[in-house]
Amino acid sequence: MKMNVLPIIAFALSINLVLGQELCPSGFRYWSYTGYCYLYVRDLYNFRDADTNCGNLAAGGYLVSTHSLAEEGFVQGLVETGDDYWIGANDVNSNSDFVWTDRSPMDWTNWDCDEPNNSGDEDCVESNFGLDKRWNDAHCDNRKQSVCKAPNNLMVTHKVKTEIAEIKKNDDN
Ligand SMILES: [Ca+2]
Ligand SMILES: [Ca+2]
Ligand SMILES: [Ca+2]
After folding, report:
1. Which CATH number fits the domain 24-161, given the four candidates 3.10.580.10, 3.30.465.10, 3.40.50.2300, 3.10.100.10?
2. What is the pTM assigned to this prediction?
3. What is residue 111's DSSP assignment?
């Protein structure tokens, strides 16, 4: 029997909200359009430390990945200074092969014109670059503000349950 779990998730979500429980890790802001939680980090970090910081602040937290112009716009709106900030895209492992630190698909890009240019081996991506406020590959050691993205608490619970079920299944075999 195949069950549609979406109504159940939606119901659980509403119960959670009714009970006033936090849907997001502390300080993160929920966005219903994606169901994810976001946090603007004003402190300046290099790329690697910025990504580690996101993981320290939330279970499953990484530098933000975006998957549409709408999501990019939402994230830009969180960045109070309007300055450039780290996002999770990088080509550290393989030049010109950009990936997200959260391993989600690279299903759209928002490069500024003539970027990415890998000038002097740039491997980490910032947004809010240039007049058009788009993406640029930059030097990973630069210290910038950043935005973190994390699954909402319900997603984390669901993921843990799925993993436990998977482990049990493997034990039975
Ligand atoms: Ca490189
Ligand atoms: Ca590069
Ligand atoms: Ca560049």
Report:
1. 3.10.100.10
2. 0.83
3. B
